Amino acid sequence: MNPRHTFAATGGERMQDTEVWRGGVNAWECDEMGHLNTRFYVMRAVEGLAMLFGQLGLPGLTHPATATTFAIEEMHIRFHREARLATPLRMTAGLLSIDATGAEVLLVIDDLASAEVKATFRTRLRHILPATRSPVPWPAAVARAARDRLTDLPEIAQPRSTGTGPVQTRATRARAQALQRIAMGVVGPDRTDAFGLMGAWGFIGAVSDGVRGLTGPFRDIIAGNADPVPQRVGGAVLEFRILHLDWPRLGDAYEVRGGLMGIEGQVQKLVFWMLDPLSGRVWGSMQSIAVNFDLDSRKLIRITDKARAELAPLVTPGLDL
Fold first, then answer.
1. Mean pLDDT rounded to a whole number for the chain
2. Which residue of 135, 195, 215, 282 sits 20 to 30 Å from the alpha carbon of 62, by its own alpha carbon?
3. Would you state the pLDDT for residue 45?
C-alpha cells in the first residue's frame, strides 16, 4: 500500500519534491485592495498543475503541441491570509484521488518567509485530448507515480461556507435575466490558453473586473451602519466554488451575471453565472463567500442588525449555483 502524505497547516516538514511553483507578488498583480488578485492565484494554480503532472511523467500538458492536456472541471479555493506586494510564495501539491481519466488535486500556497498559508485549492480535473476535449486514460506509469503522491485533505482546505458533493448548475439564459450584469465582452488573446480557449483564470478575472458594480451598494450599507464608520472600505473573498461547464474560444462572447444569495454570519454569499449572451450557452457557475474590511486597519467590518435589515430586500430568492 502506498503511504499517504500529510500537510502541516502552520509549516513543518514537507517533502521537497512536492513543490510545484515558486515566485512572489508583483505590483501589477495587485488589485485596489493592495493584495494579489484572484485571477493570478488561479494562473499560478494552472502552472502548478502542469508542473505536478510533469513530475509524474507527463510534461508539457499546457504546450500547444501536446498530445493530451487537462481540463479543470471544478475548483474550490479558500483564501486564508492576504498575499501583499513583494510577498515570496511557493506552492506544493498532492493528489487527493485519481481514477482512469481524472484526478483531484490539493494545491497549497504559502509564504516562504513565515510558512503562513495564503490559499488552498481543491481541484477536480480530467485528462483529455485537446482537439475533441474527450477523456483519455492516464498512462499506467503516471497513475502509479500519482498513487505515490496521494495525500489527505487537511482541515484548512475543507469547504466552510460553500456546498460539497455533486452539483448541477441551475444557470440558464432565462434565469440569468433576473441577475445583474456585471461584466461583458469577447474573449481576447489575454484571456486564452495555448489552445485558444479561455483559461481557468478568465471566469474569476471577469468577476473580479465587474464585481464592484454588484457589491458596491452592499458595501455602502454594511460600512454605513458600522460603528465606527470606516474611512476606506475594501472587499475580499474568503472562499470560491467554481464549476467550469464549457470553454469559450478566442472571439466568443461572454457575460457574467451575479446576485446576492444571502447574508450568513459576517459574510455575503454571492453567485455568478458566465454565459454566451448571444446563444445562451452556459460557460460556468461560481459561488463566492465575501467580506468587507477596513483598508486602514485591515480588519473585518462586522454586519450590524440594521445593515442586515437593509440588505434583506437585495437578496435574490432561490439563487444557487
1. 93
2. 282
3. 98
Beta carbons within 10 angstroms of residue 190's beta carbon: 8
Whole-angstrom Cα distance, residue 285 to residue 241? 8
Say if pTM beats, i.e. exceeds, 0.85.
yes
- Angle ∠(262,267,271) on CA atoms, nearest 5: 50
Tell me whether residue 102 is exposed, middle or buried, using C-beta atoms within 10 angstroms of its C-beta: 0 to 12, 13 to 18, 19 or more: middle
User: Which three-class secondary structure string do you get for the chain?
Assistant: CCCCECCCCCCCCCCHHHEEEEEECCHHHECCCCEECHHHHHHHHHHHHHHHHHHCCCCCCCCCCCCCEEEEEEEEEEECCCCECCCEEEEEEEEEEECCCEEEEEEEEEECCCCCEEEEEEEEEEEECCCCCCECCCCHHHHHHHHCCEECCCHHHCCCCCCCCCCCCCCCHHHHCCCEEEEEEECCHHHECCCCEECHHHHHHHHHHHHHHHHHHHHHHHHHCCCCCCCCEEEEEEEEEEEECCCCECCCEEEEEEEEEEEECCEEEEEEEEECCCCCCEEEEEEEEEEEEECCCCEECCCCHHHHHHHHHHECCCCCC
Q: Grid coordinates representing 81?
A: 491570509
pLDDT in tens, 114-164: 999 999 999 999 999 999 999 999 999 999 999 989 999 999 999 999 977
